[in-house]
Specification:
This protein is α+β, with helices and mostly antiparallel strands. It has two domains: about 250 residues, Butyryl-CoA Dehydrogenase, subunit A, domain 2; about 190 residues, Butyryl-CoA Dehydrogenase, subunit A, domain 3, CATH 1.20.140. Helix content is about 50%, strand content about 15%. A four-stranded mixed beta sheet has the order 3-6-7-10. The termini are far apart. The relative contact order is 0.11.
Amino acid sequence: MLTGQEYKDSLKDGRRVYFQGRLVEDLDATPGLAEPLNAVAEGYDKYHSSAPDAVNPVVSGPRSVQELRDRIPELMELDLALNVTYQSLMTLVVAAARMQDSGDGRVPVYIPRINAYVERARRDDIRIVECITDAKGNRSLSPGKQDDPDSYVRVVERRDDGVVIRGAKLHISAAALAHDMMVMPTKTMKPGEEDYAIACAVPVNAPGVHITNTTYHPLHGDPRDYPVSSHHSIPDSMCIFDDVFVPNERVFLDGETEHAAVFAHSLGLWERLGGVSFMVQQADELVGLASLIAEANGIARVQHVREKIDEMMIHATLLRAALEAAIANARSTPEGYFYPDDMYTNVAKYQGAVQFTTMVRHLHDIAGGAVVTAPSMADFDNPTLRPFLDKYMGTGGGISGEYRSKLFHAIRDTTADAYGGWHLVTNIQSGGGLYAQRLVTRRNYDLDRARALALKAAGLSS
């Protein structure tokens, strides 16, 4: 296992990482990248063991429903790179099981490759990111009918020892901080689209890989005005594959179109479980902020405010119940790894995303306009301003101006600034958009039972 410093040193491997148009020479010295880099390094130190056969327990697959349940709070405390590594490895485990269950005689070659890669990744203590969403070009056209055939990542050359891929993957969190990229088809592929049915693991420093970075991390201003995002941020990337060679042992699917969707569905399951787990925690946090700011504003007993907070609590409780249902109805792979139920996971993710804006609207209505106009915390450092700010931002009863302003900044940072906008979009898009969750629900819902009940109610069951 690596220490935090050894992890940082391992990233000095010739990778082509860019930020604001410039090639990054030192991640540690780059605003917007240094903070998440340090968070990942701290995760390494937290779990480090000097035992020669030690493996990070977090990336080992759960072997029971209870272990799957117990893993959730631990995952919520992880840096995103370690969390996504866990999701990536579990995606491969579930995808291998589903391909094996298909009975297709052509796929057994990939199963031992996947299992060997998973074990090697755990042993080498690397971090892996998920690369699924393609550039897509004209979304009304299939991959093979695009004006530019590289709009979807594809195989451009097959060799005896591997393949060469070209294209780009978008919206990839923490790519600059990882060792490997797990590339997979973004959707079902049809006969004739064999070149796009490619799943493989690509080292971040492989020749031909270029990684851009954007971030919601506050690059300027007082960190006190950004109490959350200044300490918890992650860069998002476009990963460009400019004729990148991938050796056979890292290729997990190549041309078998009928299995292209297996990886996307398996990844969606684990990403959505992670998303729902975060949404449950986020919902409770929003309820807490609403309760505190209502109290600070002196309106905690106003009827419409109480009703809004009630609605927020009901939403938070239903999300937690759906997460528990997904875990309680978990399935297992032939190897004995447990994974959450598809339908409950997707329904919970859908509801969490759809209701997020309602939760935020209630919070903003309760808080008021000072969410975006409260004085900066640096203003409280000014001896001339401080008495005025304490006087006019305070509300009596022990509610100081500084306390109330800190609440406003927390609400703004998490819901009404760059970080809040990031959540607004990622709650919907992470793990696939709302349509993807509707599709999974439609496929798994027991519609026959519902129709039979309806026929019985109508006296038509005969």
